[in-house]
Automatic annotation (TrEMBL):
This is TM0106 family RecB-like putative nuclease. NCBIfam families: TM0106 family RecB-like putative nuclease (TIGR03491). Residues 310-486 form the YprB ribonuclease H-like domain. Coiled coil: none annotated. Transmembrane segments: none annotated. It holds the Pfam family RNase_H_2.
Length: 494
């Protein structure tokens, strides 16, 4: 009997195929974990241990025990009404769970997990729970109910990175529009995993943003390219692929199709996929299959020149909640030889240094006086600066940040320009597009995740070499934005 764990539920929300691969595929084909993942694991454990220390001497700590003994000791502790159990193990039939915490509330137990990030999905004010957290703690809650250790209220707790206790009320609907409860989501996910494990259901790989740190990434990418999978098309994910698969089993079949055959009025043969979206995917499929395909604009876009052009990118560490670097590459007269890099860096992971770096960056942009055009990629910089303004109102207000990013001379290349183009690429990330245009980062492993790991090294060691690696990476990100702008101008002329 294959046991179903909480981590399998967690993974299934992101990628059900990972569950199948972990159970049935040769583990020797896995990728080695990246330094970033290893850092996350280490920081996660350190955070857990810090939380347990904060909870004091009343915690029964079973962390160091082997699985079998841990299970026995957990059951003994529950029967003896131990108030708080850390790293226990509970099991019923094919279900097994290792909740970080088991809290005694009244005469029953509820499960809790310790997370180093936020307990909410996106902005905390939304109150929206994270799906992968919800199914994981629902799994522990289900086992407690089956063992008659729960009060039946279907509630659990996430202790987040700020040491806040976030209630997960699993009988509640997932949202205003989605009335399906979190508990139903869990039961549906559990049923699907059982079907995967008994081979009555199969899963397929899909290319997505979640693939970046998965240990099956290279294996799945090889398979996807071999079968010419639809998820190789930018923004066409697993759900849309599955809807379209019977009609279009691969990119080539979509590229050679006539979308009109699948359009009737304002709808298509595929629920949730409108005519415009279907035609967009078909155009992207054609680009992927044409040997000499070139990017193009779908509609005219103005890209006026300016004597001063600034390319802007930030670096932050979500584990610390720290925005530590605001980088700018300034170019004059459109001449690359005039470029200079300005880095506003927090020299220590402290609020005072974060505020100083933010103030320096704000002062720099305000000093441009609207005479330059500033280019950045996606809404991330705007969102990060709004959060910084909330923390440090002495630098500027949230309203001032909103006003700045609303200025005509502040240009979001992704949403303002690239969104009106088509490219023969699998995604629209700045790294993919800049590399397509011939740009190369100096670092052999350029990624936002890697930069977080480098920053962690710098904080721990103070290494000047690591600090320079971070600065070089950020400068290259800024220059990649410049390469993209120049490339877009060339495409617009053709």
């Amino acid at each position: 009997m294959k046991l179903i764990s909480g981590s399998m539920l967690y993974d299934a929300v992101h990628c059900p195929h990972r569950v199948s691969m972990d159970v049935f595929e040769d583990p020797g084909l896995r990728d080695d974990p990246s330094p970033f993942l290893e850092m996350l694991w280490e920081q996660g454990w350190n955070h857990e241990f810090e939380v347990i220390d904060r909870l004091g001497d009343g915690v029964l700590n079973l962390f160091s025990l082997e699985a079998a003994e841990k299970e026995v000791r957990t059951l003994e502790a529950i029967k003896n009404k131990v108030p708080l159990i850390y790293a226990g193990r509970i099991r019923h039939d094919d279900l097994v769970g290792e909740p970080d915490l088991l809290f005694l509330r009244g005469d029953a137990y509820i499960a809790g997990d310790i997370k180093s990030g936020s307990g909410f999905d996106g902005d905390e004010s939304s109150g929206k729970l994270k799906r992968h957290y919800a199914v994981q703690v629902a799994h522990y809650t289900n086992i407690l109910e089956l063992l008659n250790f729960s009060d039946g209220r279907k509630s659990a707790v996430i202790l987040d990175g700020g040491h806040n206790e976030v209630p997960y009320l699993l009988a509640d609907p997932q949202g205003v529009r989605n009335k399906t409860t979190w508990w139903t989501l869990y039961l549906e996910t559990l049923q699907y995993i059982r079907q995967l494990l008994d081979r009555s259901e199969t899963s397929k790989a899909a290319l997505s943003a979640q693939c970046g740190h998965c240990h099956w990434r290279r294996r799945c990418e090889d398979v996807l390219r071999e079968v010419d999978d639809l998820t190789l098309i930018a923004e066409l994910g697993r759900a849309k692929r599955d809807l379209m698969f019977a009609s279009f089993p691969n990119v080539a079949s979509l590229a050679t199709s006539d979308p009109a055959d699948y359009i009737k009025g304002s709808k298509t043969s595929f629920p949730g996929i409108g005519p415009d979206t279907l035609q967009k995917f078909q155009a992207r499929a054609i680009l992927l299959k044409l040997p000499d395909a070139k990017p193009y604009f779908r509609e005219p876009v103005e890209l006026p020149s300016s004597e001063v052009e600034v390319f802007f990118d930030i670096e932050d560490d979500p584990m610390r909640g720290m925005c530590y670097l605001h980088g700018f590459v300034e170019r004059r007269g459109g001449v690359n030889a005039t470029e200079r890099y300005i880095a506003c860096v927090a020299l220590e992971p402290t609020p005072a240094e974060e505020e100083r770096a933010f103030r320096d960056a704000w002062t720099y942009l305000m000093g441009l006086g609207g005479e330059a055009r500033v280019y950045y990629y996606s809404k991330y910089e705007r969102t990060a600066w709004k959060k910084l303004a909330e923390r440090y109102p002495g630098v500027c207000s949230v309203g001032e940040v909103e006003a700045l990013f609303s200025e005509e001379w502040m240009v979001d290349l992704l949403y303002g320009v690239v969104s009106k183009t088509e490219w023969p690429t699998n995604n629209r990330s700045i790294k993919t597009l800049a590399k397509y245009l011939g740009f190369r980062w100096r670092d052999s492993n350029p990624s936002g995740a890697a930069s977080i790991e480098w920053y962690n090294q710098w904080v721990e060691t103070g290494s000047a070499e690591v600090r320079q690696r971070i600065l070089d990476y950020n400068e290259d990100d800024c220059r990649a934005t410049r390469v993209l702008l120049d490339g877009l101008r060339t495409i617009a002329k053709n």
